[in-house]
Amino acid sequence: MDKLKIKLKQHTPILHFQHNQTRATLRATEVKPKLDRFILEKLGGGNYKEGIKKAGENKGWLIEKGKGALDYKIKFRQHQLKNAFINQIIKGERGIPFFFGNMGDDYDGKEKAFIFNPNDIECQILTFKKDLNEKLIRVIREFFLLNNFGTRQSKGFGSFTVEEIEGEEPDENNLKTKPSELYFDVEVKNLNLNAFKNAFRDTNIFYNALRAGINHTIYVKSFLFLYFIKDNINWEKRKIKIEFFSKKLKHQQKKWDDIPTSALHSKINDFKLIRDLLGLSTSDEWVGYSKKRIEKVQAEYKRGEWVEVEKEKRNIDRFKSPITFKPVLINDNNKKKLRFYIILNQKSIDYLLSKHKDFLIKNGNQKFDISMPNNFSLTNFFDFVKTIELEDIVEDKFQNSNEFIVLDNILNQLNQCQTKHTPH
Q1: Helices and strands (H and E) in the chain: how many
Q2: Cβ neighbours of residue 381 under 8 Å, at least 6 residues apart?
Q3: Helix 402-414, helix 378-385: angle, nearest 10
Q4: For residues 48 and 71, what is the distance between their CA atoms, to the nearest angstrom?
Q5: DSSP secondary structure of 164-215
Q6: 265 closest CA partner among 223, 290, 234
Q7: What is the pLDDT of residue 422?
Q8: Residue 298 to residue 315: CA distance in whole angstroms
Q9: Which residues have CB under 8 Å from 386's CB, separation 6+?
Q10: What pTM, to 2 d.p., does this model score?
């Protein structure tokens, strides 16, 4: 039997529901299926099913013929807990950026905890397949670079990387050394819960500006809206106001009549479902509109009208964000920082738009049909984001706010990066 020992470093807390277990850390039941798929997709040249076929017929790596489980065992151990912390989250807590809110994962009511250990974590892999063991050695570092774990993993929680394989640091010349060419840094003075909260709060500001925009202590129009409106495509938010909240819209237009360039006064009537390109949910709560819950459901055109796709035939109910933040702790001129790499998953966007992009948006008995755009390039979108001059789209009175300073700093850093698509 081959025994592979890997030393892991944890960079951000993992949100864990088994926090009451002694030395809770990464779960083999989560990591192994993801690692299996990662290996099989590589084996199949990006095709998971082809990878299963090759692993079974040519290599004998499968536990069961035709199934995607590879023949190895994996486990994780923590030997030291110095400066580690466990901080429980209770239902209703609102001070945790990215944990609550409509971003792809609903709060499920289970108590979870932040678990973070700055000490080395041991990963041990056991297999009787020598060639499978060699494959694991070749891919394990890239796997951890491109994935996070636990709840809210796409937002940067549960980030780990490989420090050593069998007591040796991986060869930087032969292995992928960073997950993306896009990144920004946030300073963290201490590795405690408050420091991580502050870092994720900054990232939350940026993500909100990307997808929905910001409209509380500062007003920033959605970067996604700005990207499409330049091509004369308006977003579903305006259409929802026209169809469901026309009185409210007229009141807003009158209130902001002195800003004719506002989205409220846009004359563009080519509406598309845009915000959900960065994460689709089946319903949205409209705070400030009597907390109306707007529902979205797949639609098809039948006998001269748009109707809901039968429930058992729907192939898209939820779609997680194609943007993953991969935070990695670094030291920069003796300053401790979290470097947030931005991984762009174009394959998931292409899958979404190829499967079904027509929807009905419903508010009680009212409804209208809308489609997603025919295509959407994450690389082109971030190229556009890097050109945004924040002072041109944010009123002067907001430009001394913390949100403006944070967002401006991130945009300036991104402007120094070369946008490069990273397959995932």
Answers
A1: 11, 19
A2: 223, 224, 227
A3: 120
A4: 16
A5: EETTB---TTTS---S-S-EEEEE-SSSSHHHHHHHHHHHHHHHHHHHT-EE
A6: 234
A7: 45
A8: 8
A9: 411, 414, 415, 417, 419
A10: 0.89
Residue 359 contacts residue 273 (beta carbons within 8 Å)? yes
Please calculate the CA angle 259-263-267 and round it to the nearest 5 degrees: 100
Place of tokens 């049909």: 369
Longest dimension (CA), the chain: 75
Encoding tokens for residue 304?
Answer: 């001269």
The predicted pLDDT at position 421 comes to 47
User: How many degrees, rounded to 5, is the angle at CA 398 between CA 397 and CA 399?
Assistant: 100
Which residues, other chains included, contact 245 with Cβ-Cβ below 8 Å and sequence gap of 6+?
A: 286, 289, 292
- pLDDT of amino acid 91: 53
Amino acid at position 224, single letter: L
Instruction: Provide the 3-class DSSP secondary structure of residue 10.
Output: strand
Q: For strand 219-220 and strand 366-371, is the pairing parallel, antiparallel, or unpaired? A: unpaired
Tokens matching residue 46:
């990006």
Query: β-strand 271-272 against 234-235: which pairing, if any?
Result: parallel
Q: Is residue 70 a contact partner of residue 40, using CB atoms and an 8 Å limit?
A: yes
Q: Buried b vs exposed e over 148-161: b needs ≥16 C-beta within 10 Å? A: bbbbbbbbbbbbbb
Residues 25-31, mean pLDDT to the nearest whole number: 93
Bridge partners, residue 76, by sequence: 123
For the record, the structure tokens of 364 come out as 């009680």
Cα separations (Å) of 201 from 156, 194, 225? 12, 10, 22
How far apart, in whole angstroms, are the C-alpha atoms of residue 49 and residue 41? 8
Q: Comparing 335 with 420, which gets the higher pLDDT?
A: 335
At position 338, the amino acid (one-letter code) is: L
For residue 136, give the 3-state DSSP assignment.
helix
- Which one-letter amino acid corresponds to residue 307? V
pLDDT at residue 315, as a whole number: 76
Cβ–Cβ under 8 Å, residues 189 and 198: no
Question: With DSSP H G I counted as helix, E B as strand and the rest as coil, what are the percentages for the chain, rounded to 5?
Answer: 35, 25, 40
| Residue 20, token pair as written in the block | 């009451």
Count of other CB atoms within 10 angstroms of residue 189: 11
Inform me whether the pLDDT recorded for 171 exceeds 90: no
The DSSP secondary-structure symbol of 318 reads -
Interaxial angle between packed helices 236-244 and 246-255, expressed in degrees from 0 to 180 and rounded to the nearest 10? 110
Sign of the C-alpha dihedral computed for residues 153, 154, 157 and 159 taken in this order: positive
Hunting for tokens 């194609």 — which residue is that?
322
Look at the chain and count its residues: 424
Burial (Cβ within 10 Å: 0-12, 13-18, ≥19) of residue 75? middle
Whole-number Å distance between alpha carbons of 386 and 392: 14
